[in-house]
Amino acid sequence: xxxxxxxxxxxxxxxPAWAQLKFLERYEVPSEMYEPNFEMTRVEDGIVAFRTIxxxxxxxxxxxxxxxxxxxxxxxxxxxxxVKEGFDIIGFDVDxxxxxxxxxxxxxxxxxxxxxxxxxxxxxxxEVDANNLLDMELIEFLVLEDKALFMGVxxxxxxxxxxxxxxxxxITVQGIYNPDTQVLQLRKVPDLxxxxxxxxxxxxxxxxxxxxxxxxxxxxxxxxxKVNQFGKPDEEIMDGxxxxxxxYQQAMIGSFGYAKRGTYLGMYIMDINEFGEYGFKKYTLEDxxxxxxxxxxKEKSKKDAEVxxxxxxxxxxTLRNIYSIRDVYSTEDSYLVYFDHYNMMNSRGxxxxxxxxxxxxxxxxxxxxxxxxxxxxxxxxxxxxxxGSSFQVVTDYQYVSAxxxxxxxxxxxxxxxxxxxxxxxxxxxxxxxxxxxxxxxxYHVYVENLEVVVSFFRKGEKIFENQRFELKLIDENERIKDxxxxxxxxVHWYDRYFLLSGNQRVRFQDESGKEQIRDVFFMTKIxxxxxLYQPEESLD
Length: 540
Description:
This protein has helices spanning 2-18, 297-312; strands at residues 21-30, 39-43, 46-54, 62-69, 79-83, 87-95, 98-105, 113-119, 124-129, 137-144, 147-154, 157-164, 169-172, 181-189, 194-202, 208-216, 221-227, 236-237, 241-242, 250-258, 263-272, 278-284, 322-330, 334-346, 395-408, 413-420, 425-426, 434-438, 441-448, 451-458, 461-470, 479-483, 489-494, 497-509, 515-528. It is mainly β.
């Protein structure tokens, strides 16, 4: 009896530590273990998820499946449509109450394409041929006011075309198609029926300038911000995330460094006013005293001393690995920025993304998408192989640390901090870490080795780091028999809620008590709550 009581007491004491992550709701769709995942995208009242799978029988046809859920994961019916033989989805977007799917036959750049438009209220779909476009390798597909935006690479040059779904006409946007140009970001501006394009262009002496161009839906240039002066002569913008305009002010935030050497120095904030005038604030390791907080104390002290030594010599401290902007949470008076610090090695021996590809460092539009993977899953190396070679480049990403900083819009650093990734390596090319910012709280969440990994910061102070939680089911009478680790995806949904999805095999008992197995695609709503955390010493 004493042993039973001790065990129950131990579980009771541990429960507050585990209660900081809760599996709330779950929705399942019957699915074979290794069938394609459902892609997910936000809609106003929840989520729409969709995929194509092969039809049964000896044919090459596929069918489209999709469903909607509300914020409690209460689903609609599973809707199915036939797909033209040999076609599959290569892009998607949501505009209003309509879901737009871009389908292509095969993988050649001159393959037939069509757009399938689905009214999510009536579940009616129409097909629109899209075969009068340039032959391009697609990078981004967006839709705004029945105008489809195709951003891609044609003959190793970036190209942006606007396709009118009503008139079946195409406009090629001027000023982008150039061998020395890269499109770094394309984003919709729904309130103004415009699109913004961030362009990096090589100029004399191999320097690059940044253009932030705004176009209407007829392809007319409405505004151009030309950034041809940045920092010292050798310093350049390495990447950036353009934020929406608020109160006639806009910002782009990213990393800077010595591009020719592939060396990173820190982050910048570029403030842009309504007239296109801009100014920069730059931040280096001198401004982030907690940059090396992800290290053990002895190693952190060593790195901090190296930074101080460089500063005493009036030398700029440098970062050895890639330092890339992932996300920005903007408030009325501050920015909370999230960077990843990682290294990469691909099967061709390269260790830096560089600027060799017209689509290198492209940042997709995340307005609606939940972890959206562009057509080519590796954004650093798509389109770099000559003549469309079928050789596949395999890239490993070794993650070192995640970095967070809250910076006032006046420019001062309010706090900074970091946590470790323990140098784990993956071939997953998307940013997999997700953040939730709620008031003074920041949660950093991702999935690794069939576990949910959570770190929690409050007012910049690290409360806990890399707490690990096993995957769980909602029904306590069921058990996870198997999970496809490659299918798992964790995305931030809203507030403190995240969404975990993937393919699983579940063991359960039927009405007669006999064990049964079901294969499913699942979506689980997860709540993180740092207030429920109790450190181990408080449980002694």
